[in-house]
Amino acid sequence: IPWNRDNDWEKLETLIRAAAEHDLWVVLGVETGWPKTDENPPRVTPRYAAYRKTCSDWIQGLTERYKDTPNLIAWATQDDPGQVITQDDAAFQDYLRSRYPSERELSLGWQVQVDKWEQVTLAGTPQVDHAAPPFFARPSLDLLLYRWQEFADTLDLWAKEIRLRDKQRLLFTGRIRDYKGLISVPRSYDAILPELLPGQVEADLVTHNAHGIDIARRAGAFCVLPNLFCGREGKGALPAQLAGWMRAAALHGAGGMSLSDWPSLKGSEELRKVVRATWDELLASGLLWREPRPTTAILYEPTGEGVLVKDRPVYGYGEQFSLGEP
User: How many whole angstroms separate alpha carbon 312 and alpha carbon 161?
Assistant: First the structure.
């Protein structure tokens, strides 16, 4: 549901009713970044009262409007949340104030003279310890932890606002497009939706980056529903390849799955047949919802940035800390 002032509610509600007529459940995805129609949006972070208030009012209105929808099974929050959350100098300074009682304590911790909080910037912080070995020290660590906490706290704010008003329904994340986001989702959610398309993260054409499902499951704490690539702009993926990706997702413990592009699916009868046959195969095998018996653990914290895709780190929040595979 776009966060706009002029939503076409009738179009959305017609779609919900049509789904009910076909005995389909509905998950309502809520845009929780900021209305695109606003020219001067405030910072999207729980650190600012203006955003908390407006976000709360928006969610209050939606939950009131749809709370009695009989086929509404779950809510979902913002897609690709890391791209809408504000990270700026003022928020970083506020974070540091919560960790250091004064500029003096910050100076002692960073081993550099800081006279005013306003001296500290996102761009300048890495330079404090990049100039001499070991090139990654307390300032960069604080910056890493700030970015990590800001992501988790913002998702938690969205979850609490929805849970406050609807305690019965499930709560999903939006589509999350990197590994550091998957590992940072707070426990206030029921399900995580990875969208780790080959080429948009690593170019894994064999399993569709299925290790992201292992990361997101967090030892069974979350149901994981990956979004698999099935085509783009109406041009479908290879049917056999998509079938392999569906099997890999099930083997890695997915609780279900979705497909990335409806026009591609609609435009290819062969693709639809393969999806249906593979889904039936997974259901018949009992693999899809069988309790996993892990033999390997992934020990992972989102520190080193790891692989960069279009200058976007997909594994961690640390700048120039660890490049390449973790």
Answer: 29
